[in-house]
Amino acid sequence: MIMDTQTIGIVKSLVPALQEHGSEITTRFYAKMFEAHPELLNIFNHSNQRDGLQQQALATSVYAAAANIDDLSAILPAVKHIANKHCSLGVKPEHYPIVGKYLTLAIQDVLGDAVTLERLSAWKKAYALISDAFIQLEQQIYQEEELRRGGWSGFRPFIVRSRQRVAEDIVALELEAADGQPIIEDYLAGQYVTVKIEQDGFEHLRQYSLCEAPGSQHTYRIAVKFEDTSRDMHQAGIVSSYIHEYVRNGDTLLVSVPAGVFTLDTTLTNPVALIAGGIGITPLMSMLRTVVEQHPDREVRLAYAVRDHHFHAFADDLKQLSEKAPTVSNTIFYENGTEEDVEQRRCAYIGRITAAWLEQHIPGNAEVYVCGPRPFMQAMISTLLRQGHPMEHIHYEVFGPALSFSVD
């Protein structure tokens, strides 16, 4: 679909209003859509809905797409990220007209008389163009994944072969395809899979990073942090709490193909810096194992910040990997650590990762990968930028809607 210059101009004239009222529009949109289509509710993470992150991310994507309607390639990285998320959740072409209908109604409700018939017509054309771009990219991803060796479409049954507690609030699950057939073994370090469970008559979908290096023909390993649902009316954490409380060896989980664009570039030889906070260690474990197993001469600097030794995930694995590869530097920070922790070498520092430590230990030519809670990532990335690290060398993964995340 090609839009004429006049229509493009009309769409762009809506951008200031979409930016100013974006959160109000998207909040209204979700309320309207979920009321009419409650079956779509559990595609979306309840905690992100509760915290407003889903609404903020959609608002950002709406006005970004409108602002770049004459050249959507300008926002291609964001489009690819969203398309990967959509494919992992099983979003289909038939979902787009539903979203378009209620998003348009929400824009009309909030902006009122500012949405003239001319603007409304232009917006509908713009949405058709944007949705077509997503549908085409997502169909391409679906087809490529299904045709890959070991690939599949939708959700495939996996058996839990082992269950290991790797921190007080984190369990790691080793999953094997129930049919015994090969799986996609050449996924990219840093990718995730979506797990689907059925509870109380509803389907719930959540994404979990793969924490092993690619290469296994039969098993995946994920790590799941427990989120308490008992005091949350939105049922945030319903999947993680279900896995912690009920899933045991021999149980079956439905799993999607690996997806995601936060991945290790294995074609480079410059140093790798892995900076993790809490559960953010999971995709970085896959990257670390990949470097150690496949590129043992490449220098790695790992900085991992956790609350204390009870929440130090993969402690033994990290120690073994750093001992196995002399090019790996493994530095642990305990926010609530003790002198005994330092003496026993459970951690190197008490407190948080500081700007001084980053400046001293992260090489200026490093490819930096950051993952963890949002405030942690904002602090780390902002500090690295101030210290002169180019943004194109800083890569990060947001657990939740990425477009609701910003860095000064």
From TrEMBL:
Pfam families (alphabetical): FAD_binding_6, Globin, NAD_binding_1
Molecular-function annotations in GO: FAD binding; heme binding; metal ion binding; nitric oxide dioxygenase NAD(P)H activity; oxygen binding; oxygen carrier activity
Domain FAD-binding FR-type: 153-265
Keywords: FAD, Flavoprotein, Heme, Iron, Metal-binding, NAD, NADP, Oxidoreductase, Oxygen transport, Transport
Cofactor section: heme b; FAD
Record-level GO BP terms: cellular response to nitrosative stress; nitric oxide catabolic process
Xref: InterPro entries: Cbr1-like_FAD-bd_dom, FAD-bd_FR_type, Flavoprot_Pyr_Nucl_cyt_Rdtase, FNR_nucleotide-bd, Globin, Globin-like_sf, Globin/Proto, OxRdtase_FAD/NAD-bd
Residue stretches making up the Globin domain: 1-139
Claim: Flavoprotein is one of the keywords in the record: yes
Enzyme Commission number: 1.14.12.17
Family recorded in the similarity comment: In the C-terminal section; belongs to the flavoprotein pyridine nucleotide cytochrome reductase family.
Protein name (record): nitric oxide dioxygenase
Gene that produces this protein: hmp
